[in-house]
Structure prediction request, 514 residues.
Amino acid sequence: MRNLLITMRFCGASYHGFQVQKNATTITQVFQDAVEEVLGKRYDIKGCSRTDAGVHANRYCISMKVDDACTVPCQGLVRGLNAHLPGDVVVLDCCEVEEDFHARYNCLGKRYVYKFHNAAVRDPFLKARVYHSQSGIILDAEAMNTAARHFLGSHDFSAFCAAGGSVEDKVRTIYAAQVYREGDIVTFSVTGNGFLYNMVRIMAGTLLAVGQHRLSSDEIPNIIAGMDRSRAGLTLPPDGLYLDDVFYSPDQLPRQL
Amino acid sequence: MRNLLITMRFCGASYHGFQVQKNATTITQVFQDAVEEVLGKRYDIKGCSRTDAGVHANRYCISMKVDDACTVPCQGLVRGLNAHLPGDVVVLDCCEVEEDFHARYNCLGKRYVYKFHNAAVRDPFLKARVYHSQSGIILDAEAMNTAARHFLGSHDFSAFCAAGGSVEDKVRTIYAAQVYREGDIVTFSVTGNGFLYNMVRIMAGTLLAVGQHRLSSDEIPNIIAGMDRSRAGLTLPPDGLYLDDVFYSPDQLPRQL
Prediction:
């Protein structure tokens, strides 16, 4: 078997997440359709993350084992897949990896970003690509950045986990966390060894409360320590959430602060 | 009657143009729906232009006559409409105008832009918002700019008019035309007193041929003079086309070169 690591980028606005679902178009489905067009066979794929409906990816990795008889070169596969994928999904790269490599199990960390559009008037061209707060309040990105730094390190993030998850151990390590403004866009960037269900969207909702001065950044350590979901902020919509990078080698990870 | 001039911006990707159509969602329909929610009545509206399916607007003007009994202040109407419009349509402004003002008949000129995305890899977040040329050729924006300057002045633009238009007089005056690059985006900007059916999209297709060195910029005057549609370039898709501005006063127009 040849094992391929394929890197892609997609706008999730029109998709019901990554994994195959009945009666809903997913990234897996359009990707497998394209593979079938190019290689003549529907192959099983392993995605690095189970992204929810509407969530985007600047960099998403999948691994796919193909028959040895399939000798198409990696760059030929990139071109072929891009010719058959819809305009909101693009393959960036493809390379051969060890046979036991698995895009999800071998993942050592991920970076997510959450984008707030902070302007008096919404931007119609960014619909479903950013979170637009209707309130018209100028977000205090500096206070949000101070708050975000309290996420750093290893903590039980039960307060930032949606109900319904099956994971027992809710301790995760955050290697980097910051908030910065570029024009009308305020970005929350967070890198960790793993994330609980809806964790980044709840972190973003909590930072939104800080940015709107409804919550003090000093409260974040108490919210983490309380392990009570009701004390953290709202779960923000998927519109602003991007899987930004995926790390497979320890030296790619930010040094822990 | 109060006559209102309302300025809006929209992403046309999900719409079948501006004018009402059966079995297809148009900007007029969602706008009238929002008006009905806010004012309790479905009013007739006059748009400045009949934009095609998929065409965008950075600035689009409509006029709407409402009953004198409707005393809602202009800024209140802006807020109300924005609360009821979908995320890809936004009202920027509203003001009172003379009773005989008509958004289309009073229009003295318009500026359109056509955006080419010129990168080896398409951007999934710009799907239906730019024209992405799959060829991977680096567009010669300087040659395109030289070609665009040949459009300046008053000409019979029959060579740049799609079949099926009912307009007799095909002379139009172009006040400004240029092509410039900003990173991966090459923009064609053109201001005129009016535009024939598909005129900007055919101009853009002709400039694309120049940018790819399939056509010399020196040929543009001959193509205009020939008045033969088959000698101009392809009609490019609506994805890259934006109505950029609408002019109602002579001093807003660029001085003719």
Notes: Chain B is about 20% helix and 30% strand. The radius of gyration of chain B is 19 Å. The CA atoms of residues 144 and 208 of chain B lie 7 Å apart. The mean pLDDT of chain B is 94.
